User: Fold this.
Amino acid sequence: MAYFRVNVEVGHLGSGRSMTLTRHIRARDAVDAYRAAKFIPRVKRVNAVEPVENLEDLALGLLNDVKPVWFFPRTATEIVILLIRVAFELAGAPLQEERPAQVKL
Assistant:
C-alpha cells in the first residue's frame, strides 16, 4: 500500500461552483486512489493524483485534512486512523491490521 495526494473539486457552493481541496489517501496504486477519491463525500471531480514519497509530508498533509471546510466525524475518524498508521511507519514498527471475525446469521 502507498500513500497518494489527491486534488479534488468539492461542490454544494451554488450552481456550477466548486473549490479544490487536497486529500490524502492510502491505496494500492494511483488508479485505486483515483477510484477511492471519487467516493469521498461532496466530490465532483478528481483533478490530480500524485504519490507521496516522504512520510513527514504525508503527516503534515493529514493534519491539514483534519481541518475540512465541512466537518464530518466519519471523515475525521478516517484521517486519525491514517495518522496512526503513518506514526507506526515512521517509528519503523509495522502495524498489523486485525480483521474482525465475520458472524454468520
About this structure: The beta strands are 2-10, 19-27, 43-51. The mean pLDDT is 78.
